[in-house]
Amino acid sequence: MRNKLFPVIATAALTSVATLFVASRVLDRDQGHFAVTNSRPVPVNYVNYAGAAAPAGAGFELAAESSVKAVVHIKTATAARIITDNSMGDVFNQLFGQRQYYIPSQTGSGSGVVISPDGYIVTNNHVVADANEVTVTFNDRYTAKAKVIGTDPSTDIAVLQVEGERNIPFMEFGNSDDVKLGQWVLAVGFPLNLDATVTAGIVSAKGRALGVNRQRSGAPIESFIQTDAAVNPGNSGGALVNTTGQLIGINSAIASPTGSYAGYSYAIPANIVRKVVNDLMRYGAVQRAYMGVEYLDSRTASPEALTAAGLDKTEGVYITNIKANSGAAKAGLKKGDIITQINGVPVNSASDVQGQIARYRPGDNISIMFNRSSKMMTANVQLTNFSGTTDILKSNSSARMLGATFRPVTDSEKEKYGIDKGIVVSDAGTGALAHQAKIRKGFIITGINNIPVGAVADLQQLLVSNSTVQIAGFYPGTQGMYYYTINNNGAE
C-alpha cells in the first residue's frame, strides 16, 4: 500500500515546489511593473488625426484678432429717482396725498461694436435704455463718455458716439443674407464683466422670432440668427463675426432657463442693423416701411386656420388682407396670394417677411414673387410709411395721426414735468383722438399699451401694429394720469 502512495505524494510535492517557483517569478515581474507605473505616467496622446488638414474655415485667429480691437465694453449708470403715483381715483391719495416710490441708482454693462473710425458704436437698446450716463472702454483701455445718438426698441438697436476723432479700429458690415446653416461664427464681447472674450460656434438657424423685443416695443421686429456660440450676460451688443472678420450680427439674447448660456444665442442680422443705424444717424428716427398686407404665418398657424385658408403646405406666407391704396394693392396683390420670395430671398414665416422689409425705407421698391392659384407671378411693390406716403419722418418732427398732430416733448418740458419722454398733442383735430377719447390740445402721452413713447416714430409703430390702443398721459397743471382706449381701425 505504501509503495502505491509514495509516487502520488512525490508527484504532489514536486508540483507544489514548481508552483511556488513560478509564482515567485511572476510576482517579481508584477512588482517591477507597478514600480515603473508609479514612476512614469501612463502615456497620453492628443486625439488628432496626424496629417489631416484642418476643416475649411476653421482658422479663427485673424478674425478674432481684428474683432476684439473693434468691440468695446459699455457701462451704464442710472440715477436714483422718485416715482409719483398720480392715480386720480385712489382714496388714499385723496386723503394723504400722492404716494411716492424711491428707485435706487443702478449700474449695468454690455458690449458694443465700433462701426466707423470717428467713434460711432452700435449696441443693443436694452443695454443703454433709461441710462443717465454711458461709458465706453476701448480695447486699448481708453475710456470715454458716450452720447446716445438714437435707439430703436423694435429691433433692439442703439447707436452711440464718442466725440473726437481718434482713428479708432472699426468693423465692416458683412451681408447677413449670405450666412448659411452650419457656417462657423465667432461671438465677441465682454461677458460677466470679463475682458474681451471670443467664443466660436456654428449658425444653427435663421429667421428666429422669440418675442423678446415685446418687452420694450409694441411693434417688435425679430428675425434672429441662432448660433451655439457661447453668449452670457454682458455679451449683449457684441459682435457676431464670420471667419473673415466681418460683422454679420449683433448678439442680443439667449434662450436659457437659468439666465446664463444654455446652448442657444441669438443675433440681429447685420443687414437690419445697418439700415437701422443709418436711419438713426441720418434722421434721428427709423424710417419704417410697410407693404400694406396682413398675412397668415403658416409655420405658427393652427391646423384649423390653415384648413380654412385652403393651405396644405408651409412654403410661403399667405395674404389674408390687402389694405386699400397701399403699395401691395397698387401692385395687384390679392387676398389668397402666397408670398414666396422678396427680392429673390425665400420667405416662409412672418419673421422672414419682417427681416426683409425692415431693411427698406418708404419709397423703396421691392420685387415680390407669389403663388396665385398654383401659378408663380411677380410684382413690384413701392413701400410706404404708416400714413401711406413716402415722406421721411424725423425724431423731432411733428406728424398727423388719428386726425391729430403730435410732437415730442422738449427738454425744458421734461424737466418741468419730471418725465423722461413723451408726446404732446399739439392739435387734437377732428379725428379718432378727439371723437373717441375727447382728448384736448396740450395732452402729453407717456405710453401706449403700457409701453413708453418718446418719439413720434414710436407712436406710429404702435398704432400700425395694434387695432386697439390704450393711451396713457396727463394734462399739464393737473394731477393724475388719464387712460383712454381708442379703436384706430381705418382711422387716420
Automatic annotation (TrEMBL):
Keywords: Hydrolase, Protease, Signal. Gene3D superfamilies: 2.30.42.10, 2.40.10.120. SMART domains: PDZ. Pfam families: PDZ_2 (PF13180), Trypsin_2 (PF13365). The keyword Cytoplasm does not apply. Residues 280-374 form the PDZ domain. This is Trypsin-like peptidase domain-containing protein.
